[in-house]
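Recap slide: Putative ATP-binding cassette transporter, sequence and predicted structure.
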Amino acid sequence: MTSSNGDAAEIRRLLKPFLPWMALSSFTGIAAGVATVLLLATINKVLNTSGGLAGGLLLTFVALCAVSLIGRVVSDVSTNLVGQRLVSQIRKSLAQKILSAPIDALERYRTHRLMPVLSQDVDMISDVAFAFSATLISLAIALGCLTYLAVLSFPLFCVLMVALVIGIAIQVVAQTRGVAGFWKARDYEEQLHKAYRGISEGAKELRMHRSRRALVFGGQIERIVDSIRTVNSRAINTYVIATAFGSALFFLLIALILGWAAFRNTDPVVLSGFVLVLLFLKGPMDQIAGALPGVGRAKVAFQRIADLSTRFASPEPHLHLDRAPSEVRLGSAIELRGVRYAFDAAEGSDAFVLGPVDLRLNKGELVFVVGDNGSGKTTMIKLLLGLYAPQGGEVFVDGKVVTPEARDDYRQLFTTVFSDFYLFEDLVADGSGGASSAGLPEAALPYLERLEIAHKVSVKDGLFTTTDLSTGQRKRLALVHAYLEGRPVLVFDEWAADQDPTFRHLFYTELLPELRAKGHLLVVISHDDRYFHLADRVITMRAGRIAEDRARPRLESLAA
Ligand SMILES: Nc1ncnc2c1ncn2[C@@H]1O[C@H](COP(=O)(O)OP(=O)(O)OP(=O)(O)O)[C@@H](O)[C@H]1O
């Protein structure tokens, strides 16, 4: 359970812009509730006076009906407005936080934890927000009825208060137990999302392995789903029992009041009025009790959202979501000087430490980064790209240090195709000086031809017509993006690994040299040692350090 001060502050921050609307909803809801109670008092008066509903009483009745109706409508409309705006603001704010969160923070917060917050928790807020005004009106009616009952007969009101205190105590216990159950269920739901990811993304592997399939279903999904059912049922049952007990208490109370009245010789007019209002009070009371499970769930959902918000509360500084990218150029070289980065240690293992790394990459160079699996190639590239901020040392571009303020602009120097790349369907013009600022669709066609995928995919309305391609073809499409963006530095993380031998040959012997001839700096993570001699330099990583930096003459002699 994460109920920290930070979460409470985050919840307050989320609600702050809506306080005026919430005040309006509360005010009109209370007005509707008070008008309803006054209507009851008027009816009670009419029942006990001769002449019925006429004259001033009729006017009062009509006016109260109008206040009750208008108050309810305004309260409902403003609550709905708050609910919808709150949900849309939460959605936008979470998306912005994710877009500006430091990459390493995102890598630590797993997708199966992210998705339930973004979908389920946000929807829960929306549902509960809708029930808010009805509950508020019921609360106002209940308080109004209680006040009216106190005026009608204070001794009977005291008897009522005793029953009410018992009823509230029971509801508080139910609420505490219910919320604890909802927290538990919510934790299970995270596990369920993880299992769902397993069965969707690992569908092929599961189809091939019956025992694993049985284990995933019986050992994970079934177990988790049953646990959620049990925990949720228990939590809801707690509420149901508390509500049933409240109802029983209510009728017991009426019997008690009737007994008390007979014993204390109470005026029948007061008694009938009291019982009438008391019976009316049951409706709003049931409504309030019925809303409590929703309130419990919303509390859990709000705290999950607040937790996610506080985790990503420190955005990467100076990351501009709204500023047009400035044109960036690479004059001579990018350098890493004494750059160091360490991951948090996983339980039972040592933390991987990269560096210190000293490296200079010159404009127009074709550089291969090689090394064993886990030697730190990708980590070093992420530092080079400005995706990770160095924990020690500095990155320089054209002799100038890349400060945190300049890091986002610096990143616009690069086009990347990671080994776990994400392929966007559209082409986005940017101001980085590439060929991508105008005439994008036409510009893409020759590259599609060149990469031998023009028969599969073309460009329509600024989008690729399909991205349902083989892995190798999708990587070729990612290369089209790289061509079109035309940025000064291109970084490929094992790009050729999924290409057929002919195309792999073309990539190393033609495409890369052509790009180098155009003045690009090319950084290629590769295990293809057959082509190492084509590079200007081959940098070998070992255990997080640069073990070797070989230049072309040595590579050629090695190849010979
Ligand atoms: N997000 C992370 N959290 C913790 N440790 C990580 C993380 N990413 C990578 N590592 C660790 O850092 C080390 C280097 O990983 P890296 O991906 O840089 O290696 P690599 O040389 O690119 O390997 P490969 O050739 O397999 O792609 C690995 O031991 C890995 O366990």
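The pocket of adenosine-5'-triphosphate is lined by residues 107, 343, 352, 371, 373-379 (CB under 6 Å).
Residues 432-439 have pLDDT under 50 and may be disordered.
(End of recap.)
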